[in-house]
Design a protein that fits this description.
The structure is a single chain. By secondary structure, this protein is an alpha+beta fold. The protein folds into two domains: 6-160, no CATH class; 176-251, no CATH class. Helix content is 30%, strand content 20%. It is built from nine helices and ten strands.
Length: 259
């Protein structure tokens, strides 16, 4: 019988998962850097930004864009990189040993804003449903663009101020966000801005002898803060811990949903 060519036998052996695993182990020192390089390519690390956003009008100033990562395009880029050393079919079969890397990202977000240089510690979280999704890549492009890539598709993205510590304070409109005192204690009350109309000036002590400017009148007179805050919860008074809970100023958070 005619002996089969070596290349045909080699391809047959490479099709055996056990043989492929043995080969991967034998050439790991040479193969691992190739796999790592291809993973970087899948994360678009070596793709010029101008190829991702070819026109500045696609990402104007102070804008956020959701995007998809075309798995076919990424696969073509990987195949193109591997094709450099392909001389015959056996080379192509051997290349398959290097393609067992990470899956490419499925989606991404581009943010162009002065937020990037001015608030570099902004907490950015993707969500699939209610589950948080960590990005596989987050970089700053130039000075004012964030590029984030996520595994699979995300439904929403949140931007939050970095939590620098527990503190009290008012919002931009001089209101506070009421927080639940029972059940899910501490969670924000829906449509719970206090007071209505906004403004804390009416809760300040009258100035007497140069004393009182900027000091809250908590209790003991009409128009004091504590009775009105308790009434907003349907209570006659608040304990000190309940009052403190209401005055917590949490970091601001903005949610963006994928179209």
């Amino acid at each position: 019988a005619r002996a089969r060519p070596f290349a045909e036998l080699a391809r047959q052996r490479l099709g055996d998962p056990e043989v492929a695993d043995v080969l991967r182990g034998a050439v790991a020192a040479e193969l691992d850097p190739v796999v790592a390089w291809l993973d970087r390519l899948r994360r678009l690390e070596m793709v010029p930004f101008g190829h991702l956003v070819p026109d500045e009008a696609m990402l104007p100033e102070e804008s956020l864009r959701f995007c998809y990562v075309d798995a076919g395009w990424v696969r073509a880029a990987v195949d193109g990189a591997l094709s450099v050393g392909v001389g015959h079919t056996l080379d192509s079969e051997l290349n398959d040993l290097a393609t067992a890397g990470a899956a490419p990202p499925g989606s991404g977000v581009l943010i162009r804003s002065t937020l990037v240089p001015n608030w570099p510690k902004t907490v950015i979280t993707g969500y699939r449903g209610a589950a948080p999704v960590e990005p596989v890549r987050r970089i700053v492009v130039g000075t004012d663009i964030w590029l984030l890539l996520f595994p699979g598709l995300i439904d929403a993205l949140t931007l939050a101020e970095p939590p620098q510590g527990l503190h009290f304070g008012l919002g931009d409109l001089e209101t506070i966000q009421l927080r639940h005192l029972t059940g899910d204690i501490g969670s924000p009350v829906e449509d719970g801005d206090f007071p209505d109309p906004p403004g804390f000036d009416r809760f300040l002590r009258p100035i007497t002898g140069g004393v009182g400017d900027g000091v809250l009148s908590l209790a003991g007179s009409d128009g004091s803060l504590l009775p009105e805050l308790a009434a907003a919860h349907g209570l006659s008074t608040l304990a000190s811990c309940q009052f403190a809970l209401q005055m917590i100023k949490a970091p601001q958070l903005q949610t963006f949903e994928r179209p």
